[in-house]
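Many groups now describe folds with learned vocabularies. In that spirit, our science desk offers one protein's residues alongside their backbone shape tokens.
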Amino acid sequence: MPATVNEIVQTDFEVEIQARIDAERARLRAEAGLARMREFKKPVERTFTAAERDRVTILFGGLTWKHEEMIKAVFHGSGYRCENIPTPIVADFQAGKEYGNNGQCNPTYFTVGNLVRYLQSLEQQGLSRQEIIDNYVFFTAGSCGPCRFGMYEAEYRFALQNSGFEGFRVLLFQQTDGIKAASGEPGLKFSVDFGMGMLNALNLGDVLNELVYQIRPFEVNKGETDKVIQEAAKTLTDTLRDRKRWHIRDAAPTWARPYLEKHSKIEGIGCTLGKIAHNLYGKEYVDALHTCRESINSIQVDRLRVKPVIKITGEFWAQTTEGDGNFNMFAFLEKEGAQVLVEPIATWISYMMYVAKEGAKARAEVEAPYRDPKWYEVKKRLFNDLRLFKKTGGLTVGSGMWTYFYHRTIKHMGGTAHHLVPQKELSRLAHPFYHQLARGGEGYMEVGKNVYYTVNHLCHMVLALKPFGCMPSTQSDGVQSRVVNKYKDMIFLPIETSGEGEVNAHSRVQMALAEAKAKARAEFQSVLDQTGKSLDDLREYVADHPHLSHALYKVPHREGLAGTAAQFAAHVSDLMDKDSAYRRRARVSMVEQRAA
């Protein structure tokens, strides 16, 4: 009986406490103007229709200028009006904070504020807000999972509403769907020409971007690399935009056209295959690649300048953008005498396909139509295997084709850009520290790339750029402390980016860079000591063989050497040892010196 009384008293006491809490919560909400609770419903957005293509301009941004120019050319070539928004600056970050929610990562603030300020600039040019809402749409990526990236779409809409552009349309491209569009809007039609054009655009943007950072630190004539790359980019964008769209009826002989008209399915399959071949192997496209290759190869470089190679990793946007969003880090590194090794977007796409495939394998037993079939139940086991193959087979083929076409682009552009690192290898290297199915950001790649580029001597330092408070990168950084303890010669520096703190970030990079420079100099000196050649000897030989100074001259990779100067010095030494004419001149010179 006493226990029952105590329970009743305790229950009444808890009820009274909860009532007081509810009353106080209601008072505070009323003071804040939040007395009425409303369930959030995603607004129904006005569609972008095919009839609007001639007057509606598609806006996009967030990549390097090389990628954006290529993508814009594909949009224009497919009949769309399209413009890329300028590279975000600190003022965009401040606008994003003003119009957006609190607690977002700086890529959100930069990109959201960038869009808002661009629309405001259109208004300042004389367009009304309604004209902007009716005649412009924004095309961006979306996602889900343990990352604020999944909230970007909502943040765009919230900031647009707060800045007076409520109703402005945002077309979403789902990150988790790979290269498949999620907008479903009839105004944005994903044809074969458009899809293959985008594949070429991303590959060309990646290769051009790497060539800039590969060549510019060693250029003899300052500013020549940027000028030549801009001309090459124009040649490629003109080709992507203006090339003739292939169709089977135009290519087929006259006698076959009536047959194709009667058999629409055969015509459709033939047309699709023909378009793919034309976009990838067409003479016009390949000739443009070779033209750019020749112009880039004309740049004169001095590869005997000792520079540390800095591999860039981290969060996707922070490691890609070339402005205030990552403290202008690439320009700063080059100014400080480093060579920057950037990451291509192609790696990210390969990563998404690999994770999707491995995730399907991990869920296979749980999702199998027949659970735990016996060893003799062959049909059930085959059915389960077939179901899994349907999920993973396409991803395997797609990943292989993506890698092949990326490497093919590298080949046609001189063959000096780096090939994609196999995702299986990155996953294997990261596995002791980070599980491959741990989602968010770049997942295992940040750890895997750090180990891969260090143990294979492909860089002197790894610099990880990520937004302040980025959860996936914070997880990665926690793991990296163990990685650094295992690989004692590793130089790894994580930098958190935001709208402020550039001086502090640059100071931290300078300190780590000093160690990387010392590492590069010691590596170069060891090559000179091993070969017995002096720097003057190497320069003299290169001067006598001008082709060695061409930008796209391919230097064979030497195991254990990371620096461009060290690799080149070892290669030139080998050429000198094999050159009989040089050896004769060296002997004559030695005899003359002794006689003197």
User: Anything to note?
Assistant: Residues 378-412 form the longest helix (35 residues). The CA atoms of residues 178 and 349 lie 7 Å apart. The radius of gyration is 29 Å. Confidence is low (pLDDT under 50) at residues 175-185.
